[in-house]
Amino acid sequence: MNSLLDILKRIYPNMLQDMKQRYDLMRHVNLLQPIGRRSLADVMGLTERTIRSEIELLQEQRILHVTNKGMFLTQEGKYVLEQLVPFIKELSGLNELEQKVKKQLGLEKIIIVPGNSDEEKWAKLEMGRACANYLDSIMTPEATIAVTGGSTIAAVAEQMEETDGDNQYLFVPARGGFGENVEYQANTIVAKMAQKTNSSYRMLFMPDVLSEASFNTMRHEPAIHAVLERIKEAQIVLHGLGDAITMARRRDTPQAIIEKLIDEEAVAEAFGYYFNKNGHIIHQVVSTGIDLEDLVTKEHVIAVAGGLSKAEAISAYFKTSYSKTLITDEGAAIGILRDASL
User: Fold this and answer.
1) 287: pLDDT strictly greater than 80
2) Do 93-341 and 2-91 fall under one CATH topology?
3) Which pLDDT belongs to residue 268?
4) What DSSP state is assigned to residue 162?
5) CA dist., res. 107 & res. 325, Å (int)
6) pTM summary value
7) Which residues make Cβ contacts (< 8 Å) with residue 167, sequence separation at least 6?
8) What would the pLDDT profile of 191-230 be if each residue is shown by its tens digit?
9) Which of its termini does the chain have fewer beta carbons within 10 Å around, N or C?
10) CATH 1.10.150.20 fits domain 93-341
11) What is the b/e burial string over 110-142, where b = at least 16 CB atoms within 10 angstroms of the residue's CB?
12) Cβ atoms within 10 Å, residue 17
């Protein structure tokens, strides 16, 4: 494909630019639908006149459906969009970027989407869509999927396709709850995933961080114990990654511990563990649900995190070798390679 692209770039440069622009338009509509023309122009940084002419062309091809509520991508449009993905990734250099990051982090599977989710909301939705598609490809009948909280994992639930038939999947929260945003809690996310896939879910009514005495008492409650057992049995774990100090503050961590994390240069957090840039654990909290040792027995452990600001945290976490699958964005990927070259 590389040689063909090189020829096309030389002979039909405008054709490739037009194709990339139409692909981007279709991708944005798919992520943000229903969306109006003016909003789409703002998101893409194009004039309304340009957007109007592109929409008319795509309508004629039955790729877009325009209503009073806004634009939608048709089923045919979704098919065309998916078929274009490999070509556009090659055209934009994302395939090469994937191979470089895969080698740098020692991964088995990586998916990099365009954009930087620190600055572009649609990039986080794009990560969600990519993860939802990948999850759909690996879920087996009667699979149990353990899911953490956070805005990025919430985007995965949002981008899942709704299914009509009954499924035997079971979604469970990988961790207890913390923070104030209900929509980002693991319990809320598993309920939405189950609704989208017409399957089942369980909730865990425990805070993420407890004293050791409280944890030992609560985990023996029959209802809680039953859910914890299902969590431990999960074949697939889907989780986000956090900046260490940000996550410590969200957990209302005592100031003395935060100062320790700063002094020992903590950069990443996952499953209640805090890591320095070398991937060494420097602090652990007593918390509910899955911990690092549980990941060793899982068939699939998928980390989803993006944004340039997460590059250091991603690099640190993958030095632990607990996960070999990453779904991220271009901003984080470029940051990972930049930091590795310093």
Assistant:
1) no
2) no
3) 96
4) P
5) 6
6) 0.85
7) 141, 197, 198, 199
8) 999 999 999 999 988 776 666 677 667 777 888 889 989 9
9) C
10) no
11) bbbbbbbbbebebbbbbbbbbbbbbbeeebeee
12) 12
Q: Which residue(s) pair with 284 in the sheet?
A: 273
Instruction: Say if residues 110 and 101 touch (Cβ distance below 8 Å).
Output: yes
Task: Give the neighbor-by-neighbor strand order of the sheet with 109-113.
Answer: 109-113, 325-329, 300-304, 236-239, 144-147, 170-173, 200-201
Q: Is 138's pLDDT higher than 90?
A: yes
At residue 132, the pLDDT reads 96
- DSSP letters spanning 205-256: -SBSB--HHHHHHHTTSHHHHHHHHHHHT-SEEEE--EEHHHHHHHTT--HH
Q: What ranges do the domains of the chain cover?
A: 2-91, 93-341
CB distance 296 to 81 below 8 Å: no
In the structure, what pLDDT confidence band is assigned to residue 158 with cuts at 50, 70 and 90? very high
State the pLDDT at residue 324.
93
Q: What pLDDT was estimated at residue 9?
A: 63
Residues 213-221: contacts with CB under 8 Å, at least 24 apart: 215/286, 215/288, 219/288
Distance from C-alpha of 83 to C-alpha of 79, rounded to nearest angstrom? 6
d(CA 67, CA 264) in angstroms, rounded, equals 56
Maximum Cα–Cα distance for the chain, whole Å?
71
* Other beta carbons within 10 Å of 187: 19
Could you give phi then psi for residue 171, rounded to 5 degrees? -100, 130
- Cα torsion 211, 214, 216, 218: sign: negative
Under CATH, to which class is 2-91 assigned? mainly alpha
Cα distance between residue 194 and residue 202, in whole Å = 10
% of the chain at pLDDT higher than 90: 67
Is residue 32 within 8 A of residue 122, CB to CB? The reply is yes
pLDDT tops 60 at residue 1 = no
CA-to-CA dists, residue 50 to 20, 43, 59, 74, 161, angstroms: 14, 13, 14, 21, 30
Cα 287 from Cα 86, distance rounded (Å): 41
Length of the chain, in residues: 342
Q: Pick the residue with more confidence: 120 or 328? A: 328
Edge-to-edge strands, sheet with 281-284: 242-243, 266-270, 273-276, 281-284
